[in-house]
Specification:
Blueprint (H helix, E strand, L loop, with lengths): L1 H6 L11 E12 L2 E12 L3 E6 L5 H8 L7 E6 L2 E2 L5 H8 L2 E4 L11 H12 L5 H14 L15 H13 L5 E5 L7 H18 L2 E5 L3 H7 L2 E6 L2 E6 L1 H5 L4 H4 L4
Parallel strand pairs: 3-8, 3-9, 6-7, 7-8
Antiparallel strand pairs: 1-2, 1-4, 4-5, 9-10
Keywords: ATP-binding, Nucleotide-binding, Transport
InterPro entries: AAA+_ATPase (IPR003593), ABC_transporter-like_ATP-bd (IPR003439), ABC_transporter-like_CS (IPR017871), P-loop_NTPase (IPR027417)
Organism: Flavobacterium segetis
Length: about 260
């Protein structure tokens, strides 16, 4: 039964035709290394878009540009209808609050318990909450990622999969409308990777999130995606559903599915 679950493709999201992220002609170079050479993509509300590509193709650079962690050289990045490449810091921060970013290593504060990691994040953005309200929200979000019992643990006491879940809980506690996942299953065993992939889809359905997922894990890509894009030579080389790209005549694209 587990193998059948892994073969599932995520086609059940409540998507709409409303674009939430629109990137036009995005360019980014580091010195003489031109990483992005005109990336164009659109992500619709409620959609999970998976971006594939060989190492160094610019996948992570693309999503870091979306939250302004990396300054673009050229192009537009429209998020919720605002071009974030043209706004000041205050406007950028207003947009960032609506976006969750799950880093590869979960980026937890090692000196804080799970409770304090989540509470610190929440209190920074919701200063008027009482202690009881903070505790309630922490408990609810830990329940949603299946780790209510880990509330008093330190990050060093957590497995890799648990750290990913807590990192996701810390992202979710701010109720983001967009979540950017950077290699959510990297370094995890097959079973734990499947559990994280299932959680990504559960979150999409429960919280109506729109997501971009960067991954090398094709099982994760198949399970979580509504649509895939493949980066090559700094541009979007191919686009379609998992099934469409798996059956393409293009040998380079098919190499991802072997």
């Amino acid at each position: 039964m587990e193998n059948v679950i892994m073969q599932h493709q995520n086609n059940d999201a409540e998507k709409s035709d409303v674009p939430v992220i629109v990137i036009k002609d995005l360019h980014k170079a580091f010195g003489k290394n031109k990483v992005l050479k005109g990336v164009n993509l659109t992500v619709k509300k409620g959609e999970n878009l998976v971006i594939l590509g060989k190492s160094g193709s610019g996948k992570s650079i693309t999503i870091k540009c979306i939250v302004g962690l990396i300054e673009v050289d050229e192009g537009e990045i429209n998020v919720f209808g605002t071009d974030i490449t043209k706004v000041d810091t205050d406007e950028l921060n207003k947009t960032r609050v609506r976006i969750g970013f799950l880093f590869q290593n979960a980026a937890l504060y090692d000196s804080m318990s799970v409770r304090d990691n989540l509470g610190f994040t929440l209190k920074r953005h919701e200063k008027d909450l009482s202690n009881d309200e903070v505790e309630q929200q922490i408990g609810e979000i830990l329940e949603s990622v299946g780790l209510a019992e880990a509330i008093d643990k330190m990050p060093s006491e957590l497995s890799g999969g648990m750290r990913k879940r807590i990192g996701l809980a810390r992202t979710l506690i701010l109720k983001p409308e967009i979540i950017l996942y950077d290699e959510p299953t990297t370094g995890l065993d097959t079973i734990t990777s499947r559990e994280i992939s299932e959680l990504v889809v559960e979150i999409q359905k429960k919280y109506k999130t729109t997501s971009i997922i960067i991954t090398h894990d094709m099982a994760c890509a198949k399970f979580t995606s509504n649509r895939l894009m493949i980066l090559r030579d700094g541009i979007i080389y191919a686009e379609g559903t998992y099934d469409e790209l798996e059956k393409t005549d293009d040998k380079w694209v098919r190499s991802f599915f072997l």
